[in-house]
Amino acid sequence: MTETLLSADIQLIQRILPHRYPFLLVDKVVEIDGTSSAVGIKNVTMNEPHFQGHFPGLPIMPGVTIVEAMAQTTAVMVGVALDLADKDLKVYFMGIDKCKFRRKVVPGDVLKMKVRTLRGKPGGKVWKFEGVAEVDGELACEAEFTAMMDLPA
C-alpha cells in the first residue's frame, strides 16, 4: 500500500486481522484518519452463533462482542495506517475501562463503531483507545481500552 487508504473492505481486514468466523466482528472500516480515528461497521445478523444461547427467543448481541468489535476496528485502523497487511499483526487486550452499555443490539442492526486513539505511536507496543458503538445514531456502548500491539519486526 503506497497510497493513503481511507477505508478497508473485508478482504483487507482479513489481511490485517488474524480473526475469522465466528470471531471476526467488523465488516468494513471507513473514514480511516491515519492512526488517529476510524469508523467500523458491523452488520448484525441472526445467523451469528452467540444468538443461539444469548438469549433463546430474545437474541441480543453480547456486550463483550461489541467491545471486541470496537477493538478490531482500532486494529484495522492501525494496520492500514502502518501498512501491516499480510504481516502477522497480533493485538491483545490489556484493559477495558469506563465501559457502559446503553442499548440492546439485535439482529438487523447496523453497529457503527467510532474509535479514536488516546495514546500510541508507530513502533510503540502499548496503545490506548476510546470508542463508541451506535445503532441508528443511538449510543449502544462506550469504552476505553488498552491493547498491546505485537507488531512485526
Automatic annotation (TrEMBL):
InterPro entries: FabA_FabZ, FabZ, HotDog_dom_sf. GO terms for biological process: fatty acid biosynthetic process; lipid A biosynthetic process. One of its GO terms (molecular function) is (3R)-hydroxyacyl-[acyl-carrier-protein] dehydratase activity. One of its GO terms (cellular component) is cytoplasm. SUPFAM superfamilies: Thioesterase/thiol ester dehydrase-isomerase (SSF54637). Keywords: Cytoplasm, Lipid A biosynthesis, Lipid biosynthesis, Lipid metabolism, Lyase. It is found in: Cytoplasm. HAMAP family: FabZ. This is 3-hydroxyacyl-[acyl-carrier-protein] dehydratase FabZ. It comes from Alloyangia mangrovi. The gene is fabZ.
